[in-house]
Amino acid sequence: MDERIVKFISSQKCITICTAENNKPYCANCFYAFIPEENILVFKSDRNTKHILQALANNYVAGTILADVETTGTLRGIQFTAAFNIPSDNLVEKSKKAYYNRFPFALAVPGDLWTVELVTVKLTDNILGFGKKLNWQK
Predict the structure, then answer these.
(1) Domains in the chain, ordered, with CATH?
(2) 50-72: string of b/e by CB count within 10 Å (b at 16+)?
(3) Which of 30, 36, 70, 91 satisfies CB 3.0 to 4.6 Å to 87 for a cystine?
(4) In sequence order, what are the residues at sequence separation of 6 or more whose Cβ sits closer than 8 angstroms to the Cβ of residue 2?
(5) Segment (H or E) for 8
(6) What is the pLDDT of residue 74?
C-alpha cells in the first residue's frame, strides 16, 4: 500500500462503515485503529447494532474516512471496500492492543471489537493536486 495512503489512514480516527440488507444500505460512524501490516481497521460496536447484524449476514462492506477540511483545496478522504471479520487467532491481541492504545476510554464502553480487512482503497487528495487519486487493491 502506498505510504501516503497508510499515513492518511493512520492520522484519522473515524470511519463510516456501510452495510446492506435486502438492497437497503445503512451507514454507521465508528472510531477505529489501523493495523497497517495487516491492512486492517479495528472498531468497537455492540453486537446487536444494525450495522453489525448486517455485516454478520453479508461480510462485504464499504466505507469512507474523511478528514476535516476548511476548503475544497485541502479535501482528503478514503473510499474503501473490505471484508468484515470477527478477529481471531493472532488478530485478537493485535486488535485489542491497537484499539485500546488509541482509545483507552473504550475499555469502559460495552461492545465487541470487529475488523475490516481492506480490499480496495482510493485516496482522493487535493493537496497532491486537485482531484488527485491514489488507488490500492489487495
Answers:
(1) 3-137 (2.30.110.10)
(2) ebbebbeeeeebbbbbeeeeeee
(3) 91
(4) 123, 134, 136
(5) helix 3-11
(6) 64
The rounded distance, in Å, linking the Cα atoms of 80 and 100 is: 23
Q: What's the Rg (C-alpha) of the chain?
A: 15
Task: Give the CA diameter of the chain.
Answer: 43
Please tell me the pTM assigned to this model: 0.89
Cell, residue 34: 489501523
Model confidence pLDDT, tens digit, residues 94-114: 999 999 999 999 999 999 999
Residue in 13, 17, 2, 98 with CA at minimum distance from that of residue 54: 17
Residues with Cβ within 8 Å of residue 37, at least 6 apart in sequence: none
Contact 32, 85 (CB under 8 A): no
C-alpha distances in Å from residue 22, one per residue of 15, 30, 70, 85: 23, 23, 37, 20
C-alpha distances out from residue 58 to 12, 20, 21, 42, 53, Å:
26, 8, 8, 18, 9
d(CA 88, CA 78): 26
